Amino acid sequence: MQAFKDQFKKGKTSLKKYGRRQAEKKLGAHTSSSNPEVDEKVIKVSELDGQLQELYDGVSEYLIAVSVMQAASTRVAQTFSNITGSKDPQLKAIMEQFLKKNQNIEEWTQEAIHQTCMEMIVRPTGEKLNEIPDLTDKLTLRNQKLLDYDAYRSRFSAETAKNADSEQALKLASKVDRARESLEMITSDVLGKCTDIQERSPEIISAAFSSFVACQVIMNARSTENMEPLLQSLPLSAEAICMICKNSHEDLLT
Fold first, then answer.
1. Any idea what DSSP says for residue 31?
2. Distance between CA atoms of 155 and 41, rounded to whole angstroms?
3. pTM flag (> 0.70)
4. What segments bear the compositional bias annotation Basic residues (predicted)?
5. What is the pLDDT of residues 106-119, one digit of tens each?
């Protein structure tokens, strides 16, 4: 069991390079910015961020679990072979065939299924998640620009209330204009970044799900193709097959 835990931990470590570079740069909860368009887009991106992170984590755990399950299958087969020893040469030979086939499937899964999932699901999802830190930085900058703009407007209002034609009022008016232009520029950047993040997300999710189903189907088919012939040499497997059929609720498989 400890060996499986170690493999699980090792697998999680190997997947980190595909994930978000800085965990602290998650978008997180959004505070209203007094701009409904910005608020709406940022909230949608925040929701997408959480969904993509959940997908990334789920597929990563799935790949690790597949590796652990196959390693466990090899270990069990090896244990059966060791127990049998030379007591039943025919059964021993079948066990060795199973063991060899299982090891081949394990290697094939790592080369084909694992890499396909990494390239078609984990990597695109991780790359999309890595776009979030840039948006977080832009939002932080926009919040500062908004504070500056509000501060200058407040000072300008206070000064014009005293003397609208004063030199200080004219200077503050100029600062208000520059602060507004700066705010409008960073707001445009934020909206553009939100659009960029959302733009290809549906396509990424659709392609990822299609790839996941394809990998699952082919992996199961390859396992059946390799292992099913062994049943012909294992007549006692009939009882297990009957029990499986008896306990199967076919409506759950349609």
1. P
2. 31
3. yes
4. 10-20
5. 999 988 999 999 99
